[in-house]
Structures are given as structure tokens and as C-alpha cells.
DNA sequence: AGTTCGACTTAGCAGGCGTGCA
DNA sequence: TGCACGCCTGCTAAGTCGAACT
């Protein structure tokens, strides 16, 4: 939408980032009806956009094989298991080249239709007999031909034909038909029909009533039995037992402290249950609904074709959602616009403007009056006095208080996301086909709550009745609903610090630690399987190699109605490129549409395999691992080790890498230096897991500022050198190293710098003069005459003139008392400052697009941090935020300084 | 066996807030 | 003392994975 003259085009003027419109603007305003969207709103979605795949820009080759997390994590930063392309990353955003590059996915069905016969016929068996030959026309005709298409590798390394052989080489049964229209069609259809069957709402509990209670009852029995012989199982978990025995000493002191603060439930000291029954009593207030929509003041109206529209609250609210987003990228996004406008029009259909104007073009919509209103409101809010702000916050706290905690088996536990999600426009990430779609306002009738049988059923804070009330004690959620945009389930759970979350978190890390004992065998196995004659095995081994070495995610299949992102099993032909002799270039969009772009050197066999998996007749849009899916992979892993799945490798490798990296901590360093080492280790892990963040807006500027600071230091150093040489010309030869000019000290910078210094000096002198006079006045003395200041300013200017002269003559009059020794010392100090500033700079640069938090929260066993903190005597609060400490109390209790992952 | 569902973990974004610096 | 800036937190989207359903 680029109509330079349309009202909407005004939106595109750069606008300050705005705070998202919140729905709490004024709780005291009158209540207004909440709307219920018409069913047809949910209907058809705009066709998904084709997507362009950026051409890979490669950087930083990495030898994965030798730096894989488990192989060695060397002390040097080169030892990172992998490294990322600098700058090139970023979530994939709509690209203008879109049209030229058809959506891979989309292309598939077409390729499918055509490709079937063509490929099948073209690829004769004799085509393939070499190692580098492809698997024969795999998955060509989908199911029917599948078993016939299978080819085995007839000897260790080489692929050759033996079509008749191998029952065992069945492809994954289903094997998406050829270039696959994907199962998602069916899925989408099913979803659609489900959505249209409105009766769903009316008989909400039918299913649940059947399933849940039964489960619950069963579980309840087993739980009571469990209680009687609680330790039977425990005994098996010997390791944890040993730990428990050791502990009491350490704990006693701690206990006192903790109990003072608040009686905390120390679940990690309790016997473990069997994990199926989660609670016996459960009391809570479910969700807090946001206040109803408050119509805008009468004079705030969006315009259509220049005419102000008087909208009913229902449609005004939707207009406001868009209006509040002016200035963001979303507003300029075509898909976002289309989805929004479709839903907005539908809303207008039902709640038309008073003026009777038919809204047919988004370009004619001008939401700026709304935007400006929100801006004003925001300013007002900001300008409120402390008391007003506090009053507002108190009111909010009061409102939320009943929802903050749940009571579980008599214990108080903090609830997590108890606020019902307010309505708004769906902000899907990357190229999500539904971004911009209206997310409806939730009513009690949308929400199912899960609560104890004897617990009072909470009353919603807005009129209405819960969609359902169930008592399933095998699950941990308090409330749940389906959102309308993607028809996905949303849950209210307890907070991260709760026993439930803590227990499963700990179990996760224990599982990852268990992998330590199996990983050697697993690696051996997959290394052998890389040469397997059975394609499926070879693919599985290769995939596992990537999951293990590159920390790729499993990569489930995705539907057409989601952003096109992939993980290991769903990698497609175009996502990996081979560069002989042994380099593989990955370039794809992973979770959250974050780009994964790496060049890695792989084992020769892996390289060979990829070549085979990519061979004709495969092409763009085809699965790289056509005989593999996550279910199969995880089944295999589970056979290797109970409870093992692909994601465990990420946890294991992250924690393991972290622990290895921490060995670089300087034993005698300052706390700061130690923390720096800690953060470096953290960063390595974040890079391993490809955790990214957008570079902050002001980064370029602030980085340039830093660079200037470094240069200013160099400038000072230069002056010191000149003094030195003026004082003792012999030094020029003696210390030839000091005769060299500082790097990036060009004339232009120096001039600018000197001017800035002058400016500052003048300013400072003026201020000082004023201050002095104020003081004099206070003490009732005579003020200094203005002429004194003028003299001073002249003096300063003269001094600064000398600067440029000094620069040109490269000679500086030594300061009073200067000696060669003193100057040399000063220069050394300056060198240190420069070096430190440079380190800081490169650090900032390296970290600008790496998100450290995610790995800390989810992947790094917190006990590693606790142990490290104890060992190196670093206060834990410097490593963990309050929230993290609340999340990991068990780690603090459990890990002493000798603890190892 | 394939597909969908359910429950739970993992993820980046954006706004608020505290802090360090000029 | 004000203000930029970076960190923290809340929010909710987007994954994983096993079980249930068809």
C-alpha cells in the first residue's frame, strides 16, 4: 500500500514508537457491552503469501566436527561449537522479491502433480549406483509407490540399487505424497469444519466428562496407594537419595532464613509421586477478565475518505486496535493489513458507522485521530503525580489480589498468567498468514476451569458463566480456552516458581544429566548408522548428528496456516547447501522465524549423505529427510534411553557446554571479571542454541559514540607521546613503538574532537562562573564582573588554538613536573584504558543480537550456576534475577560448590 | 498408521523501571 | 536532577511430544 496521497499514507511518516494501547485506560468509565464476533469472521483466511528465501550470505565457517559441544570446548572463543553469521540474521520479514520466489511450500503441490510421473519415469534404477547417487525417486507417488521406490545401500559407503531387497527399508509409512500437499490440507479442512460447527460450544463437557473424571478417579485411587508405599520408587533414584542424606547440615542454616521470609514448600525434600496425580485439592479464582471496552470521547473519530466516522463501540474498538499500532511495522505489512481489514469490515457490517458510509478501502481509512488520542492519554498518564499513579496501582493490585495465588493441597502457590488475554490484533511472527486477524474478547462462556471438587466455583469478574468446570487432577492447568485466530488452546498455569513447574524443570535437567551416561553409545550408534544400508536409518542418523552437534530442534510438520519455519526433521532441499569438500551451509527459518544461518564442516559421511538425500529427483520444496519424522526419531531415542527425545539434546548440550566454558573463569580475578567469564559462557550457549534478539534501535548510534570515546582516549595518548618526545627526543629511537601514530586518528576526527572539547570547556567555564556568583550572592558578597568570565573564555579559546598547532607540529610542551618516567607510565595506563574500552566495545558488538536470557531460563541447569557462584564466591543475585531465584530455589538448596552437571 | 489433540515448554518482543551518567 | 539506556518482566506466540482419535 503505497499511495503517497492517500490519507493512510500519512501513517507511514516515521512516528515515535508508541506504547501499545492498553485496555485499562480508565477503570472508572462506564461499562459498555462486549461484543461477540459473528461466526463468519472466523471463516476464510486470506491466501498465504509466497515466501522468498534469501540467498545465503555466508560468513564464519566453523568446523563443527571438531568443536561440537561434546568433542571439546576449548578455552578459546574459537572453541565455540558453532558460530553465527554476523549481521545477516533476523527474522525473515516480508521481502520484495517475494514474487520472484514462489513459496517453497506452495510450490510443492504443483511440483507434486507434475513431478510425480515425470520423476518416476525419469529416474531409472540405473541412474543410481554410486555413493553419491540419490535415493531413488523416493516418495514419488506417495503411498502407493513408496515401497517400490525404496533403495538400499548395498555396501558400507555406497548406495546402489537393490530395489527388490529390503522390506526393512520401508519409508515412513505415510510419507507425504511427492512434493506433498502436506497433511495440513486435511488438517485445515478438519479445523475449518470444526470451527463452523457451532454446536461445539453448547455441549462443551460431553467429551471431557467422559474422559477426565474417569482418569481422575483412577488416579485418585492410585495416589492413595502410592502414599502408603511412597519410598518404594525413591529407593531406585539412588543418586538423589545420596544427595538428600548429605544435605541436612547445609540446609539447617538455610531453612531458618527461608522460613523467615515465607514458608516455602520444599518439594525437593519430599518423596516424589508417580507424576500422574498432580493434586488432591485445588482452589483458585481462575482468570481475571480485562475491563470492558470504554468508548472514546465523542470528538475522537477515525476518518474515512476525510469524513469522521461515528462508530459503535464494537467497531470502534477494532479500529482502535489498528490505530494504536500506527508507526509499527505491522501496520505496513500487507498480510497484516489484509487480515485486519477483512475482520474490520465484517465488524462494520454488523456495527456500521452512524453516517451510513460503506467502508471498502483501507487506504481511505485514517486512524490518526485515534492514534493521537492514545498518545495524549499516554502523556497524561505519564504526567500524573506520584500519588495518582500509586492510587491507580493500588486499585489494580486490589483487583488482582484474589487471582495471585492458588491453593493446592493446602499450600499457597503463585499463579502465572491469570489475566484473560485482552482482545486485539494477532501479532504472528515472521510470515504468519493470519497476522492482523482480530483476536476476540473472551467471555466466561469461552473458558473452562479446572478446580477441586470441593472448591467453591469462582464467580467471573464480568457477567456470564464458565463454559465448563472440571476436576481433573492429572493436569496442572487452572483455566483453558481456545483462541479464535488459530484455534489453539491457551492455558492458565501456575508461575515458574511453583512446585509443579519446579518439579518438572528439575526432572528435565535430571533427564539431560542421564543422557551423559548414554550419549557415547548413542553417538557411536549414529556414526555407524550414517552408513546404514537402510535409507530411513541413514537419514535418522544424519538428523541425529545435526541435533546433537548443532542443537537443532526436532522440527515437527507444520500446516499451511502457519509461518513456514522448520526444524531438523522438516528441513527441505533448499535449506542446506553443500560446498565440497565437507562444508554444509544451513539457511532456514527456525522457531519464531529466526534465521539459522551457519556454515559447518561435517564428517565426510554426513556430507555424502546429504548429497544423497538431495539428489535428483528431489528439488526445491522436497523434504531433506523424506523417510524421517519426529515421531519416528523420538521413538528411536526413547528406545536408546527411557524418556529421551530430541529436545533433551539441546538441554544436555547447553548445560554441558556451559559447564565446560565456565572452566575459563579466572580464579583470582575480581568479581567483575568472574561475572564477565560467566556471561561469556552464557553467550556461547546462547549462540549454540541460536537465541537471538533484535538489535536495539539506538545501537548503531551508541556504538559510534563508544568508538568516539576510544578515539578520544587515543587522542589523549597521542598528546602524551608528543610531550614525551618534546621532553626527550631520544625516546623516539629508544621507543620506536611509541613513535607510531594511533590507529584511526585522522585529521577530521581530531578537528571535530578538539572543537567538541572546546565547546565543553567553554560551557563548563560559564557554568562555573554562574555557580560562583550564586554562591557569592548567597554569602552576600560582591558578584564577579562579567568581564572576568569573558577573559576566562578568551583564555580557553587561546589554549585550544594551541591544540591544533600541537597537532600539526607534533610537539607538545610538557606539563609542569613531567618526567620521562611519569609520561611513560601515563601512556601505559592509557594503553590499558584503550584496551579495556576496545574489549567492551567488541563485547557489546558481539552481544548485540544474542539473547542470553532464554538459555539461562530454559537450558542451563541452574545448579551449575549455584555451584559456580559458591566456588568462586560470587553473589548469586549478580547472576540470577529475582524471578530466576524464585524459579530455582531447589537448585540453591541442592548444589554445593562441588556439584557437577 | 496417520492425524489431531492436549498439555506443557520455549521464545522474542515491548513497555516499564531502575540506574548510572552528565 | 533529568534523561538515556539497558535490564527485567509480563505477555503471548510458537514450539515439542505423547496420547487419543479415526
TrEMBL record:
The protein's enzyme class: isomerase
Active site as annotated: 859
UniProt-listed Gene3D superfamilies: 1.10.132.10, DNA Topoisomerase I, domain 2, Topoisomerase I, Chain A, domain 3, Yeast DNA topoisomerase - domain 1
Domain of life: Eukaryota
Biased composition (Basic residues): 206-217
GO-annotated biological processes: chromatin remodeling; chromosome segregation; DNA replication; DNA topological change
Name this polypeptide is given: DNA topoisomerase I
Organism: Papiliotrema laurentii (Cryptococcus laurentii)
Lineage, top ranks: Eukaryota, Fungi, Dikarya, Basidiomycota, Agaricomycotina
